[in-house]
UniProtKB/TrEMBL annotation, chain A:
Keyword Oxidoreductase (UniProt): yes
Lineage: Archaea, Methanobacteriati, Methanobacteriota, Archaeoglobi, Archaeoglobales
Protein name: 2-oxoacid:acceptor oxidoreductase subunit alpha
Record keywords, A-Z: Oxidoreductase
Entry-linked PANTHER family: PYRUVATE FLAVODOXIN_FERREDOXIN OXIDOREDUCTASE DOMAIN PROTEIN, PYRUVATE-FLAVODOXIN OXIDOREDUCTASE-RELATED
UniProtKB/TrEMBL annotation, chain B:
Name recorded for this polypeptide: Uncharacterized protein
Organism: Geoglobus ahangari
Superkingdom of source: Archaea
From TrEMBL, chain C:
Species of origin: Geoglobus ahangari
Protein name: 2-oxoacid:ferredoxin oxidoreductase subunit beta
Keyword Signal: no
Taxonomic lineage: Archaea, Methanobacteriati, Methanobacteriota, Archaeoglobi, Archaeoglobales
UniProt cross-references to Pfam families, sorted A to Z: PFO_beta_C (PF12367), TPP_enzyme_C (PF02775)
Entry keywords, A to Z: Iron, Iron-sulfur, Magnesium, Metal-binding, Oxidoreductase, Thiamine pyrophosphate
Start and end residues of each Thiamine pyrophosphate enzyme TPP-binding domain: 48-194
Residue ranges of the TM segments: none
Domain Pyruvate ferredoxin oxidoreductase beta subunit C-terminal: 198-256
SUPFAM superfamilies in the cross-refs: Thiamin diphosphate-binding fold (THDP-binding) (SSF52518)
Superkingdom: Archaea
Cofactor(s) required for function per UniProt: thiamine diphosphate; Mg(2+); [4Fe-4S] cluster
Gene Ontology biological-process annotations: cellular respiration; organic acid metabolic process; sulfur compound biosynthetic process
Alphabetized PANTHER family for the sequence: 2-OXOGLUTARATE OXIDOREDUCTASE SUBUNIT KORB-RELATED, PYRUVATE FERREDOXIN_FLAVODOXIN OXIDOREDUCTASE, BETA SUBUNIT
Length: 591, 90, 270
């Protein structure tokens, strides 16, 4: 029996949704299932709606929901339209009387949409219309029971409402008590009160109809967010210097490294310009250095990137894309920095851009980025997005591989930092080992500034040669192919849309193929791989399709513009639209 | 019940859970409907108040307007100190 | 190892009479006296006439971008504390576009020396008003009189936390060299505001203008007189205004080994 569940846990921000979501993910991972969880949260507002969306038995999010655990009324109003018939709904009994108009924290736009369709309706009235397995928990009573049982003040007890809700929900979905208990212990190792809360909640629903879930494949796994995965991969890659400026969603990665830094030099800079400047200084001095940032920070780094190209300094910049332009929506996802990453830095600023499709790819791409940066003395921009950053999944420990430290040869007499060579790569020595000049101006082989036309041309050709060599090195790995050989439609995409598309083409009635671009600069030659119509899917206004038009015909572009992750069902709709002959499809799934 | 926590001057409503709130006298969370011997009348004064219906802080100048619309006003609102761990900005 | 050890082949492009010649001479003499191995001498320049000094002193130098010499120098010093790291840039570079980084270096107290080649103009781009030019002054290449107030670099440095603050004059090469020696020997963030004429664009603050006003402090001021001396405008005091020993950035950071095993253990489920 294949277990495939789509579960949402919703509540007000500050109500422990993060913990509840993590408990659920951990519980299914302990039971031995492939599990993926994504947190959707609102910028900086206590009380605003936030939810966790979990997929068990798959790597991508899909609608409809099989279960909703709603810790407040707003969660039900927000998600009820996505529930399938006979889905499980766990909610607080006292919120059943609430009307739409009585929830001030709900966005005006959403409230108006609901009132337009249903009027000023109450939760009870909505639920009557739907066929659901409704289990309402008397939260107040359960709290009282817990308070008496543990003889602790209400303030400690009231924090366990999220644990109660998620325990009841997981139990009804078929997880056994000992699995749920293990997950809670991992989440809250020092607070036994949560286990009592779990027991009381499960007691309340013991007599209700319950699903069955068999044991999955057990094994040692790490449960990590994207930020943690990249951070640990960097630690395994023996980084020696990290500088950053706090920016969502990159901050979590930087703080994780800072917390576990050992002898790694970590600096919180005064701005992103300084962050990248310091990292370049460290790299010039021979350390393996990196920075992490998001769109607005990357904008600031542009000038430094051009410097790194001219002065041939190895550096890895981790760019976590988010909804843009400008400050955009700091806590929501998007893929809007593709062209920015590729064309960053003024001038002929050749650099590598690598896009990871999920956590596992991110873990591989980290050491690859450092290797390319150092072998070719060039900036590497590793692009991911908020969706990967904050989503949680289980990963095998052996996915992390160590990268040996940087090594330097003995300095020759009269060392030339920018020596002209056949492959364009000069032997690298850090400052401190030989005299040289590392220059942002066009320069001769030693590094002296030069305006001479012959020297200038030689240096330009050198950098071009170097980039061509790099392109040859990566040409075997710049994209992945999934799906049918004789497909009617070829989907092209990059980044975190990957798993939704991979799953969609498996179930699509129309035979489809998927080219996932992994390296976007140098841009790969995919002309031989096209079968049938070309459908480009991306979460921006058409940046990849703009690049693709240089090498192939693009029949349809499916754009996800609502700052939410891509769902499996949306990909199917995009495929249908492309086959019908539409030139553009706007995908609006997610809440 | 007229002299329950909801009407008491020692009590602040919980920002997320409607049925809970914080009692300054007992320095602990209590239920909205419960009552005890330490009841005092609510005094709505001070520069800033909390409007539960609007779920936001209002200034004293706006107090009359909200009260006349039938909104429930309190001296403030209770936010658990751990909530900050879940909140993000840009 | 004589001073000639630090010469390069590059042709010096500064205008005859430029204060930078004084700085070049004094700096070469200072590093020679300290016997600093050129491989371990790191001059980091920004963009401007003065930053070209990185081509004229033999070392392991970096010619960075406008306003950003300080972050790059900071990254270098943190990575290899054995290096002597000196930032050399103009007042426009360090106190205009680079002001944020100037302040941050003071806050961190990283062992980097900042030499401000202070001529109150943007020389390389043809003589616009610099951050230290007083308001109301109209120099020969400016379209109208300066509408900005002059910044006081010493006060800014003091407010930012620099642990060595000095001012010097480019043409008094011996005295300048003494101050540079003190600055380089100091453990922590150091700034030397080196006043110099720009013979091409600053027709107000000439050699004569300076030499009528400058005088040397008899001793390092203390207490209230520190600020008094920093703010003095009628005459211009030169010398060391402030010096203090404090933990550098490096010392403030703890050191322990990365325990990869425990990181993995914390995140593993069984």
């Amino acid at each position: 029996m294949k277990v495939d569940l789509s579960i949402a846990i919703g509540g007000f921000q500050g109500g422990g949704i993060e913990s509840a979501g993590q408990i659920a993910v951990k519980a299914f991972a302990i039971k031995g299932y492939e599990v993926f969880g994504s947190r959707e949260y609102h910028s900086n507002i206590i009380g605003a709606h936030s939810y966790y969306h979990i997929r068990v038995g798959g790597k991508a999010l899909r609608m409809p929901l099989d279960a909703l655990i709603a810790l407040d009324a707003e969660s039900v109003f927000t998600h009820f339209r996505n529930l399938r018939s006979n889905a499980i709904l766990v909610c607080d009994r006292s919120s059943l009387e609430k009307k739409v108009s009585e929830i001030p924290s709900m966005s005006k736009a959403l409230r108006e949409r609901i009132e337009r369709t249903y009027g000023n309706i109450s939760l009870n009235q909505i639920l009557e219309k739907l066929e659901l397995r409704l289990i309402s928990l008397p939260m107040a009573e359960l709290l009282k029971k817990l308070s008496e049982a543990v003889k602790k003040p209400m303030s400690s007890v009231s924090r366990t409402l999220n644990v109660m809700g998620v325990s009841a929900g997981l139990y009804l979905l078929g997880l056994d008590e000992s699995t749920i208990k293990k997950a809670i212990e991992r989440q809250f190792p020092d607070f036994e009160i949560n286990l009592m809360a779990m027991e009381i909640a499960i007691d309340e629903v013991r007599d209700k109809e319950r699903d069955k879930i068999p044991d999955g494949k057990k094994g040692e796994k790490l449960v990590l967010t994207g930020c943690e995965a990249v951070a640990i991969a960097k630690l395994f890659s023996n980084i020696e210097f990290l500088s950053f400026y706090p920016i969502t969603p990159a901050t979590d990665e930087a703080l994780f490294i800072e917390e576990n830094r050992g002898r790694i030099i970590t600096v919180q800079a005064e701005d992103e310009i300084s962050a990248l400047g310091m990292a370049l200084g460290a790299s010039i001095a021979g350390l393996r250095a990196t920075v992490t940032t998001s769109g607005p920070g990357f904008s600031l780094m542009n000038e430094m990137i051009s410097f790194a190209v001219q002065a041939e300094i190895p550096i890895v910049i981790t760019l976590w894309m988010r909804a843009s332009p400008s400050t955009g929506i700091a806590t929501r996802t998007g893929q809007q920095d593709l062209l920015h990453a590729i064309f960053s830095g003024h001038g002929d600023a050749f650099k590598v851009v690598i896009a990871s499709g999920d956590h596992e790819e991110a873990i591989e791409d980290v050491p690859l980025s450092f290797k390319l940066a150092e072998d070719f003395q060039i900036p590497v921009v590793h692009i991911l997005d908020k969706f990967i950053a904050s989503s949680l999944t289980s990963i095998e420990k052996n996915k992390f591989t160590p990268l040996p430290k940087r090594e330097f040869s003995t300095p020759p007499e009269n060392y030339l930092r920018y020596k002209l060579t056949e492959n364009g790569v000069s032997p690298f020595l850090p400052i401190g080992m030989a005299t040289m000049i590392v220059s942002s101006l066009e320069h001769d082989e030693y590094g002296f500034a030069s305006e001479d036309p012959v020297i200038r041309e030689e240096m330009m050709l050198k950098r071009i040669r170097k980039f061509r060599k790099l392109a040859k090195r990566v040409s075997g790995n710049s994209y992945s192919v999934y799906g049918e050989k004789n497909a009617e439609i070829t989907i092209i995409s990059f980044g975190s849309t990957k798993n939704a598309i991979v799953e969609a083409i498996e179930i699509s009635k129309i035979p489809a193929k998927f080219l996932q671009l992994r390296i976007l600069s140098p841009f790969p030659d995919i002309s031989e791989e096209i079968d049938g119509k070309v459908l480009c899917i991306e979460s921006n206004a058409g940046q990849l399709s703009f690049l693709l038009k240089n090498c192939c015909r693009v029949d349809c572009v499916a754009k996800k513009l609502n700052a939410r992750p891509l769902y499996v069902d949306e990909v199917l709709r995009a495929i249908e639209g492309a086959i019908e002959g539409r030139k553009e499809v706007i995908l609006s799934g997610g809440v | 019940m007229d002299k329950n926590c909801e009407k008491c001057g020692n009590w602040l409503p919980h920002i997320g859970y409607h049925f809970l709130g914080f009692c300054n006298k007992k320095v602990d969370i209590s239920f909205r409907e419960s009552f005890c011997e330490f009841f005092v009348e609510m005094e709505l004064s001070g520069e800033f108040l909390w409007c539960e219906d609007c779920r936001s802080i209002i200034s004293f100048a706006e107090f009359e307007e909200h009260k006349n619309s039938g909104h429930k006003i309190f001296r403030g609102v209770f936010v658990d100190s751990d909530y900050r761990e879940e909140i993000y900005e840009g | 190892m004589g001073v000639s050890e630090y010469k390069t082949d590059a042709w010096v492009q500064w205008c005859p009479g430029c204060g930078n010649y004084g700085v070049l001479t004094a700096l070469r003499e200072a590093v020679s006296e300290l016997k600093i191995d050129p491989k371990k001498l790191v001059l980091v320049g920004g963009i401007g006439c003065s930053s070209r000094i990185v081509y004229y002193i033999r070392g392991s130098n970096v010619h960075a971008i406008h306003g950003r010499a300080i972050p790059i120098a900071s990254g270098i010093k943190l990575s290899n504390p054995e290096l002597t790291v000196i930032v050399a840039a103009g007042d426009g570079d360090i106190l205009g576009i680079g002001a944020g980084h100037f302040i941050a270096l003071g806050r961190r107290n990283i062992d980097v020396k900042v030499l401000i080649h202070d001529n109150a103009v943007y020389g390389l781009t043809k003589g616009q008003a610099g951050p230290t030019l007083p308001s109301g002054v109209k120099l020969r290449a400016m379209n109208y009189a300066n509408v900005h107030e002059a910044l006081n670099p010493l006060l800014l440095a003091f407010a930012s936390g620099y642990t060595f603050i000095a001012r010097a004059y480019a043409y008094h090469v011996k005295k300048l060299k003494e101050i540079l020696l003190e600055a380089i020997r100091h453990r922590g963030s150091a700034v030397v505001d080196i006043l110099q004429p720009c013979v091409t664009y600053n027709d107000l603050m000439t050699k004569e203008w300076f030499e009528r006003r400058i005088y040397y402090l008899k001793s390092i001021p203390s207490g209230e007189s520190i600020l008094d001396k920093m703010m003095e405008r009628e005459r211009i005091p030169l010398g060391i205004f402030f010096r203090k020993e404090m933990d550098t950035f490096k010392k403030r950071m703890e050191k322990f080994d990365v325990d990869l095993e425990s990181v993995i253990r914390k995140k593993t489920l069984f």
